[in-house]
Amino acid sequence: MSKKSMQAKVEFLLEMIENIDQIIKRHGGIVKALEDFEGQMALLMGLSQIGETLKKLDDTLVKKYDLEEDRDGAYYTRNYIVHDYEGVDLGFIENILRSYLPELKEKLLKITFHV
């Protein structure tokens, strides 16, 4: 995978995180965004996109920046969102939005300066 392609994927991931942040702000917080069906659908789609895109990052880049657990966890979450036909545990999603996403953003910001 070319550096340009990896850079584009990292930039897309950061854009998805920024979009999720904006959705949360528009709704006045994570809980309110998850309670609104449009907010919930948008957040779940954003998380799905993050999981799908992280899975496509080059293994060398993933190892260099210690993103193996992030990649695997995000892809698991993507599959959970996409395939859980009986409903997604919004408490689980809230925890991801509150705890995991800010940490992932910091890791990705470091990559953009080194790719």
Keywords:
single chain, 115 residues, mainly alpha, Four Helix Bundle (Hemerythrin (Met), subunit A), 0% strand, globular
Give a concise summary.
The protein is 83% helix and 0% strand. The protein has six helices and no strands.
Structure description:
The structure is a single chain. The chain is globular, with a radius of gyration of 14 Å. It contains six helices and no strands. By secondary structure, it is an all-alpha fold. The relative contact order is 0.16. The protein has a single domain (about 5-110), classed as Four Helix Bundle (Hemerythrin (Met), subunit A) (Up-down Bundle), CATH 1.20.120. Helix 1 packs antiparallel against helix 3 (about 35-55).
Helices and strands in order:
Blueprint: H1 3-27, H2 30-35, H3 37-55, H4 59-64, H5 68-83, H6 90-112
Helix pairs in contact: 1-3, 1-6, 3-5
- How many angstroms separate the termini? 12 Å
How much of the sequence is in beta strands? under 5%
Helix content: over 70%
Give the number of DSSP strands.
Answer: 0
Main sheet properties:
none
Q: From the helix content, strand content and strand pairing, which structural class follows?
A: mainly alpha
CATH level 1 class label:
Mainly Alpha
Do you know the CATH architecture?
Up-down Bundle
Shape: globular
Number of discrete helical segments = 6
Contiguous low-pLDDT stretches (5 residues minimum) are: none
Rg from Cα: 14 Å
Look at the structure and give the mean pLDDT.
Answer: 93
Q: SSE order in H/E notation?
A: HHHHHH
